[in-house]
Structure formats: structure tokens, C-alpha cells
Amino acid sequence: MRNAALAIALFLLVQLASSAAALLAVNAGHLADGGGLDTSLLLRHPEYSGVALFFGQLLLIALLWLTPLVPRRPLRPAMHIGAGGWLCVASATLLMSVGSTLLLAPLGLSDDGMMETFAGMKGNVLCLLLLCCVGPLAEELLFRSAVLGNLRRSGLHPAAAVMVSAVAFAAVHGNWAQAVPAALGGLLFGTFYVRAADLRPSVLGHVVNNSLAVVALFVWPEMDAGLLALPAAVQVNAGIVLLAGAAALAWLWWNKTLQPTHENR
Description:
This protein is an all-alpha fold. About 75% of the residues lie in helices and about 0% in strands.
């Protein structure tokens, strides 16, 4: 339990340091001229926050990897998953992502301008790597391997550990529009992790989820707008069906016979 709390504290500390670094970098010209810090510059130049977080998340990965907060080899295969298992992970994540978006659309939850921030980052390669790869790996190391894993090792029931890690994952997003899908994603990724005793499936699911959002920024903004323009009843019903499909695939994953790898037999 203590290690789980320490991991979250480390995450928050890195986030704070990254935000401070971005604020200093975007204000470098002002400071050189003897001026003060202008926080509004980060809103106009979100790529500074993205780059700072990219290096901050790399630092977090290194710190987690080098401390007892996560296993020595967190990405070591514990089970033979097979092509069907990987397809199940990707498909369940896609259904969960689209389904939660549709189900929550009629509520009009505020994201505190995060989508505009992400749109401002899409022209920077490091920001894209943060959103699609580095961020998902760092967050899965933290919330699944460090938080969920340490809660399990402390004796907490698997279902309770999955729920606690999902709530913590949702809370750090800071707004309801992201927190609710993050909670659902946390439950799904936690299920992947607990069943397989392996971080790789949850990392894949997280990468798929984030990459879908990034692809929508580039390729399908009109389709995304079209989905959100559907009648509320259609959005809710479609969202429920898609989330039910994701739950069914998670059930199949849980009940699928996963074979231990040769070194774990």
C-alpha cells in the first residue's frame, strides 16, 4: 500500500516539475528581458507543455524502472497470449473508447480545453510520441504495475485493486470529460494486467486508445464531429451497445486459457 502511494506521489512530482519547466521555457524571452512569468503563453503554445511532459514521462519511466516500485522486468512475458488474445485487447479498447465517447456526448462534460491543447500539439513529433507511446507506457508502469501491482502484493482483492487503480487513473486527468473514460479504460486495462500477470496487454490497449484519439485529430475530425452530432438517443444506445461489446470481450479475455511462457512453467 505504501509503495502504491509513493508511486502516485512520484507521478505528481514529475508532472509538477514538467509544468514548471514548460512555463520557464515558454517565458524564456520575457525573463531575459527582465519580465515576469506569463502563464497564458502555455495556452497559446501548448507544444511547450507537450515536450516538457515527454521528457518528464521518460524520467518517470526511468525512476520507476530503477526503484522497487515496479518489478525488475515489468514487460517480461508471463503468459503466451497469442494472436487472438492481442486482437481481443485491441478490439475491446476500440469499443470502449468509441462507446464511452458516444455515451457521454449528450452530457456535454467540459474537458477544460484539453482537446484544443492536444490539437495544438499535433504538429510536434515529440508531442505525438508522448500521446501515442511514451505517455501510455509511463502511465501503465505507474497505475497498473506500481499501483495495482503493489496493492495486489499487499493482499488487496484483485477486483478492489483494479478499481482503486482505475479511480486513481481517472482522478489525475483533472476533468470529467476525460476522467470518466479514463476510469472505464483503467478497469479494462487492469483486467488485462491482472489476468495475464503481464503489463504488455494493458500497454497495447492504452496505445490503441490514445492513438485513436490522435488519428481523429488528423484524419477523421469530420467523422468525430458527425458522431457527436447524432441525436442523443442514438448516441446513448450506440454507446451502451459498444461498451457491452467491450465488456463481452473483456469477459472472453478473462476466461481465455492463457498458457504460461516456457520460463514461467
